Fold:
Amino acid sequence: MELKTIQTPQVPVRYFEGGSGAALVYLHGAGGLRAGDKFLAALAGRYHVFAPLLPGYGDSEECPALRDMLDFTLHGWDVVDALGLTDPILLGHSMGGMIAAEMAAVAPRQVSRLGLIAPVGLWLDEHPIPDLFSLMPYEYPQMLFHDVAAGTALLTTGMALDDPEWLKGFLVTNARQLGMAGKILFPIPERGLAQRLYRITARTVLIWGASDRFTVSDYGQAFRAGITGAELVTIPEAGHMAIWERPERVLAALARL
Amino acid sequence: MRFTWFNLMPWPFLPDDFREKHRSVWVDIDSRLFDPAASHQVYNTYMDLLEYASTLGFDGIGVNEHHQNGYGIMPSPNIIAAALARRTKDVALVVLGNSIALYNPPVRVAEEFAMLDCISGGRLVAGFPVGTSMDTNYCYGQIPALTREKYQEAHDLIMRAWHEPDPFAFNGRYTKLRHVNIWPRPIQQPNPPIHIPGGGSVETYDFCIDNTYSYSYLSFSGYIRAKALLQGYWDRVSERNAPDTSPYRAGFAQTICVAETDEEAERLYAEHVLYFYNRCLHVFPGFADAPGYRTIKTIQSGALSQYAPPLGGYSSLTWKDLTEQGHIIAGSPETVRQRMEDMIKGLHVGNIFCLLHVGNMPADKCMYSTKLFAERVMPKLRGLFPEHDNDQRFWCKPLEGQVAPGGLPSEAELAARLGVRV
Structure:
């Protein structure tokens, strides 16, 4: 994967590009995207992948002008336009799924294939989504992975909580990334998507880890009920981070588009 | 010097095993620990203490705003201040303050502060905190990365509402109002003096310097730890070529306990101080600092969130640690005077917010400590900045001849005046 920069009207955007096949735009979740991401590599085995970083993620420039859901949604389309893509497969994970769904609802004629992996964006009172912003790092694995021990190992590699300089860097990254994510996820990750889902006309596949404890499977059913013709694929032995735990199964589900 | 007797209003009945059984004193504190019937006594005692302090020569009495918080049962400081306005005279009412980004629309603050100023005869000192992340983000749901922009807009709206004599339209990003025309207006013109509680961000330093607001550092970790932060402020005051370095440009909160001797101070107050540091500051770290709440610049400056516990946590601190490391200033009047003088000179602060009620301290001990401070410490600290004695910019300017409550005529006078039978 190559890390490149493209200019949009509001901000330069960093994006990973690689692979060959049908053009696919992948929108990452609140945790962001790193160069060695194994899901990205898996995607690139079958698609020509474009994976933009949301402003403030990684080393990308922040964009204070992006404040609310509409700003994020239109920014998503600005990126697709800047990349010169027409009707790419639109794929998003978690927060990225929320943005992708909004993009498909706002501009239904510009997207005909939509993949949503454990998207947020809906709220069910009987299944409150955990407060991502007050979770301590040691609480993430339990929430995000089917295999908590393996997930812990994945997340804690390279952590040095006792080193003040590392901690400062961690806090800055968190402030940049989750600060940005908070604009559409805090305090409740819901910005009215439910009332716009009917506008989505893309063929849609919803991909859910069977052990997702963050966005439980009821959310998958709620999305399926809201998007006409959407298909829900449940992946066994996978949690909210199905993209890392079962990338091949996620790809197989995507192939249905 | 200006001394404000400040009461955080802690809930005094947190159980001994609070730390073990509960994860946080703030945000998701167990509501079953609050006893409404018992709070009747607690609130009224705390207000009695504020009123008592006003009779002892303190310049101000102070209240603040916290939400869902076991050490501050004052979500609306304005309600307390309104009650105090009626039962006190001459003393400043220091409301430190209203978290202006939380009021919808923010002209509510302009209105309520104006009411307080009018009822009290111009005794309001107004505070505009951004609010802690616990209050602002986790309890009141403000988006962390947008909080400061919303705060700034609320500030601009409130100031215009106070300053502009004619109705105006306000087209803000967060508040849109067609007819801003608050009624009543504050006695103090163009506006009551303004204090801004801050936690070390350069942006807040500049905001205070540019607007001639007093910068307050409200911490519980004492003056030794505050040195670097306030030095940063004073460096900035010089860098920005502010016209002066008046100590009244800054304020500092300090926990203080006074007794006849150092030993007596420990005997009388240690349990209440430890109650505060061990139970009241037991905040779940996940609530301390929502990502995006503090600016990148502030994080990079190395300032840790003041609610991030010190390494090992507060619980390992003893009375000796707390006094020697300056978290609290405690002891005989002479010990306290010396340390207060070190603090005032070292930090160069003119406004002191005296936390003389601590934790679950009962009223009698609090009165004793307060009286000793007022009579045997405060007078000796009054003259520390004689060259700035005339600096009135950061303090209230009460009306001459304030109205006393209860000024209605007796029924007999009424009958005589009106020529009727009552």
Chain B has a mean pLDDT of 94. The first strand of chain B starts at residue 2 and ends at 6. The radius of gyration of chain B is 22 Å.
